[in-house]
Each structure stands twice: as structure tokens, then as C-alpha cells.
Write a structure and sequence with these properties.
Rossmann fold; alpha/beta; four-stranded antiparallel beta sheet; ABC transporter transmembrane region fold; six-stranded mixed beta sheet; elongated
């Protein structure tokens, strides 16, 4: 799979279940001793369970008055019967308790590994993949591992062990016809179950797909709650959601109906097999070949075999569903990160903060060129501003500098080090940004500021907030720094969110600062205060400013004017005005707009 290809659900036929099972096996190795002990308890529980009908046969034969007169109760046999039942329950519960740590540790490790892997995937992947679908795939994927372990340890293996033990006893002690009937019935049952369940699988796949689609639609609408309200599209969003759930409902009904047909077929096969066994066993008692205890024994064995076998269809279906869910999860886990550290990547050694774009070109797709032959240098401690119309490629410069994407041509250097040759973590550690659209975690204000440096002291966080001119506002809130900001910071205004973002970058104190229209949501008074603060913060830092309001960057050491992915003008503010080119036209237009606003 190409790293540029968006992740999509693979057809059932493309799965490799054995490979997938091998892939999750390492997650069980933390407690291999527990696995062995749990399997030992499983064997002991089944041996005790199979021993119960054997003792019951002896009890019935001992109490059979037609064979001999009863002198006394077979106390030893009765006690043995009770002990075996107790042992079966004890070892089953021990197996469950011992294996619980294995099962939940595997889920924990896998969930952590998946989340870690998602953070390694490039921005392109996260822009193309819908968050709701990822969330549902992760949830189903991790639960699928738990389900498989649960069924394997608590259902499939016990059935196999018990089947083998009972078959051995029947073959060694009774007519071969009993064993033949049991095995033929079991094989017909299993074959019918597999065929029907396989036929039913497409309903489940369709349900999963529609379930993810409905979940994505719901989350997408709720995330964009304000937009939905702006356009009055509440009913439209609910109808979209309901239409998808209608298709899901239809497939769910078909799935349930076909399952009923499967269950009836299974019941018919078992009924025929049990009836044949009981006819032969009853005739054996009449002929004197078998005792009444033998009849009870065979009947008890049948119950022990066919009662769990009756759940085999459910187990098989759930196992197949879990394998399908696991396949989606592992395909996600196997998604190759587009942006990776080079094999010999070293930590970035950034002491001065010189930034250089050397003949940089970039395109998201082959037919969509974003940047072409971009060349500029930001000297250590200098401030360079980038202006231009929307779509000119300004924000792409930021994404390339953070190495969210790799350049298509040329190179980006920081202190003469190609950013492709250093580790991503060390690169991003030295760059701080105040984005145009500040998104906050649904947590406290304190958490959101401290996110830049979780180890920072409270005083350092307060100092950063003061620099961003937001400390007094925070203190005025009822819960002060413990105030929750809401989903994506919706409880705060745009200006308040941006000032928190400024405080966050101040706390990080990186060598290189990026302001992506950092004051666009502020009023004039707040903007002036923040610009003064930003100027103080950026005084000893290399600074790149993406700007819309030209009045905020007149003090820049150099201004780059971009259009259609190219730098068409560059120079200081006054020098660009003297050229009377694109920058002059933008400046004149904004000055006229400002005059009209103040009139």
C-alpha cells in the first residue's frame, strides 16, 4: 500500500487470518507462565468434567435394585461426584482469573501501540481519514483481540479437549456406532455452520461499514456544531444519520433472520444425532448389553458435548467477525508512515536558528503544484513575514518547516542542517507556533498552557500567561486556571484561545517562532498589546510570520510576497512600497479599508 493512499476497508477475501493471528501473538508473551498455568487449569477442569458422568454411571449401577439388593449408600462415589463437580468449577474459575491478566495486558499493549502508530502517520493520512471511522475501527479492533482470546481459551479449546476425552472413553468402552454417530453428527453440524455463517458474512461487513459511516457523520456534525446551527441544518444532519442507520437496520434484520435459520438447522442436526444415540443406547439396555448406568453415562456425555457445540455457531460467527475487525486494525497498524526519520538521523543541533529554503518545490499531488522554486533565508534572530492571497502557499511553508510533509524538490536547512537528516522530535522541539485556528484540548486552561512543557512550574505558567496578557482574565473566572475550555475550546472566544496559544508558545521558548496570523481574532486594542508582547518574545528568536494585516509586520526584517506558490517580491516594508508592485497595492487597499472602518 502506497503511503499516499488513504486507508480503506479491505474486502474479506484479502484477509490473511493466520498472518494476523501471528501478528498479535507477541502481545501475549508478557505472561507466558500465566498462559501455561491457565491451559493446565483448563485441562484439569475438563478431566474433572468428563469424570463426573463416569462416577454417575457407577452410582446408578450401585443403586440399580434390578441387579442386586442395595445394602448401603455408595458414600465414596457420592463424595467423589461432589468433589469432581467442585474441582471442575474451581479449575474453570482459576483459569479465568489467571488468564485475565494476559487478556487485558494484550488489549492494553495493542491499544497503546495503535495510538503511538497513529501519531507516526503523516498529516496527509489524518486529513484523508475520518476520525470517527478510525475511532470505531480502533474500538472494534482491540475488542476483537479480547474476543478471540476469550473464545479460544474459554470456548474453543475446552470443546476440543472435552471432545477428545469423551471420544477416547466411548471408543475404548462402547460399540463403535456410538462414536460414528457422534462424529458424523458433529462434522455435519460444523460443515453446515461454516457454510451458513460464511454466506451470512456479507451482511455483517455491510453493517460494520454503515456503522462506521453513521458514527462518522454524527461526530463530524457535532464537531462542526456551530456550522450546523449557522445554516439551520439540524434536520439535514439527523436525516443523513437516519438514512445511513436505515440501511444498517435493513442489513441487521437480514443478519438476524438468517441467523435464526442457521440456529434452526443446527438444532435439527443435533436433535437427529441425539435421537439416534438414545435409540441405540436404549436398545442396548433392553438387550442387556448396556447397564442403566451406561445409558446415563452416554446421555450425560451427549449433553456435555452438544450443549457447548450448540454455541459453536455463535462462536464461529463471532470469531470470523473478530478476525474481520482485527484485519482492519492491523491494516491500520501496518500503514507505512509517509514521513520517517532517516536510518542515520541525528538530533538537531540548533543553536542560532538560521532557516533557509533552498529551491523548494512541493505538490500534494502530481497535478497540483503548491510551491515552485522558493528561496529565502531567515538570519538568526531576524523576523521574516510572508504575505499574499489565499492559496498562495503561505501555510504550506509552515507545514514543510515542521516536516509534516517532505519537499518535492530542493531542501530546507536549519543552522545548515537538512531537516530531513535530523529526527523529527528534535526538530519540532525547537519550533513553536501560534496557529491561525487555535484548537484546545477539552481540559482546563492550566492543562492547555502547560501542554507546551508539562514539567513547567505553576509560576512559569503564570508568567507565560502574563506575557500573553491573559493572566488577569483567567484569574477573573470562577475556576481560574482550572476552568474547562470545552470541546476544541468552544467555551472561549477566538481572541482568548489565541492568547492561550501565545502563552503556550512562550512557555515552550523554542529557538524558532512561527506566527500564523496569530492576532487575526483579536480586536485592535488587544492586538496592539499582543503585538508588543510578541515583539518582546521574538526579540531573541528567529521568527517567521504569516500575515494578513500588513500593519502587523512593518517591522519585519524582510517581507516575502507570494502568489501561486512563488515569491514574486521580497524586501523591507518601505523598499516594497517604493517598488509600487503587489505589496504596494495590498497596502493601499488595506489602508483604505481601515479608513472606512474608522469613519
Amino acid at each position: 500500500m502506497s503511503p499516499h493512499t488513504p486507508f480503506t476497508e479491505a474486502p474479506h477475501g484479502n484477509r490473511n487470518d493466520f498472518r494476523n493471528l501471528r501478528a498479535v501473538t507477541p502481545f501475549l508473551t508478557d505472561y507466558i507462565g500465566r498462559v501455561i498455568i491457565a491451559l493446565s487449569c483448563l485441562l484439569l477442569a475438563k478431566m474433572a468434567n468428563v469424570g463426573i458422568p463416569l462416577v454417575l454411571k457407577e452410582i446408578v449401577d450401585a443403586l440399580d435394585s434390578s441387579k442386586h439388593s442395595i445394602i448401603a449408600l455408595p458414600i465414596v462415589l457420592l463424595l467423589a461426584y461432589g468433589v469432581l463437580r467442585l474441582a471442575s468449577s474451581l479449575f474453570n474459575e482459576l483459569r479465568d482469573s489467571i488468564f485475565a491478566r494476559v487478556r487485558y495486558r494484550a488489549m492494553r499493549r495493542l491499544s497503546t501501540r495503535l495510538l503511538d502508530h497513529l501519531y507516526t502517520l503523516a498529516l496527509r493520512f489524518h486529513l484523508e481519514r475520518k476520525t470517527g471511522a478510525i475511532s470505531r475501527d480502533l474500538d472494534r479492533g482491540t475488542r476483537s483481540v479480547s474476543t478471540l482470546l476469550n473464545y479460544m481459551t474459554f470456548s474453543i479449546l475446552p470443546i476440543i479437549v472435552e471432545f477428545a476425552l469423551i471420544a477416547a472413553i466411548l471408543i475404548s468402552n462402547y460399540d463403535i456406532k456410538f462414536t460414528i454417530i457422534i462424529f458424523v453428527t458433529a462434522f455435519i453440524y460444523i460443515g453446515f455452520t461454516l457454510a451458513m455463517s460464511q454466506w451470512r458474512m456479507h451482511f455483517r461487513h455491510s453493517m460494520n461499514k454503515l456503522d462506521s459511516q453513521a458514527n462518522t457523520q454524527a461526530i463530524d456534525g457535532l464537531i462542526n456544531y456551530e456550522t450546523v446551527k449557522y445554516f439551520g441544518n439540524e434536520s439535514y444532519e439527523v436525516d443523513r444519520y437516519d438514512n445511513t442507520l436505515t440501511d444498517w437496520e435493513n442489513d441487521a434484520v437480514k443478519s438476524q433472520t438468517s441467523m435464526s435459520a442457521l440456529n434452526f438447522g443446527q438444532g435439527t442436526i443435533i436433535a437427529v444425532g441425539v435421537t439416534l444415540i438414545m435409540i441405540y443406547a436404549g436398545q442396548g439396555v433392553v438387550d442387556g448389553v448396556l447397564t442403566l448406568g451406561d445409558l446415563v453415562l452416554i446421555n450425560a456425555f451427549l449433553l456435555q458435548l452438544f450443549i457447548p457445540l450448540g454455541f459453536l455457531g455463535i462462536i464461529y460467527r463471532q470469531t470470523i467477525h473478530s478476525l474481520a475487525d482485527m484485519d482492519l486494525m492491523l491494516k491500520l497498524l501496518n500503514q507505512i508512515p509517509e514521513i520517517r526519520d532517516a536510518d542515520n538521523a541525528r538530533p538537531a543541533n540548533i543553536t542560532r536558528g538560521k532557516v533557509q529554503f533552498d529551491n523548494v518545490g512541493f505538490n500534494y499531488n502530481a497535478d497540483r503544484e503548491i510551491l515552485n522554486d522558493v528561496n529565502f533565508t531567515i538570519a538568526p534572530g531576524n523576523k521574516v513575514a510572508v504575505v499574499g492571497p489565499s492559496g498562495a502557499g503561505k501555510s504550506t511553508l509552515v507545514r514543510l518547516l515542521f516536516r509534516f510533509y517532505d519537499v518535492s524538490q530542493g531542501q530546507i536547512l536549519i543552522d545548515d542542517q537538512n531537516i530531513s537528516d535530523v529526527t523529527q522530535a528534535s526538530l519540532r522541539e525547537q519550533i513553536g507556533i501560534v496557529p491561525q485556528d487555535t484548537v484546545l484540548f477539552n481540559n482546563s486552561i492550566y492543562f492547555n498552557i502547560s501542554y507546551a512543557r508539562p514539567s513547567a512550574s505553576r509560576e512559569e505558567i503564570f508568567a507565560a500567561a502574563r506575557t500573553a496578557h491573559i493572566h488577569d482574565f483567567i484569574e477573573s473566572l470562577p475556576d481560574a486556571y482550572d476552568t474547562l475550555v470545552g470541546e476544541r475550546g468552544l467555551k472561549l472566544s477566538g481572541g482568548e484561545k489565541q492568547r492561550i496559544a501565545i502563552a503556550r508558545v512562550v512557555l515552550k521558548n523554542p529557538k524558532i517562532l512561527i506566527f500564523d496570523e496569530a492576532t487575526s481574532a483579536l480586536d485592535s486594542k488587544s492586538e496592539k498589546a499582543i503585538l508588543t508582547a510578541l515583539k518582546n518574545v521574538a526579540m531573541h528568536h528567529t521568527t517567521l510570520v504569516i500575515a494578513h494585516r500588513l500593519s502587523t509586520i512593518i517591522d519585519a526584517d524582510q517581507i516575502l510576497v507570494m502568489e501561486n506558490g512563488r515569491i514574486i517580491e521580497q524586501g523591507a516594508h518601505q523598499a516594497l512600497l517604493d517598488k509600487k508592485g503587489s505589496y504596494f497595492n495590498m497596502w493601499t487597499l488595506q489602508q483604505e479599508e481601515q479608513k472606512q472602518e474608522t469613519q
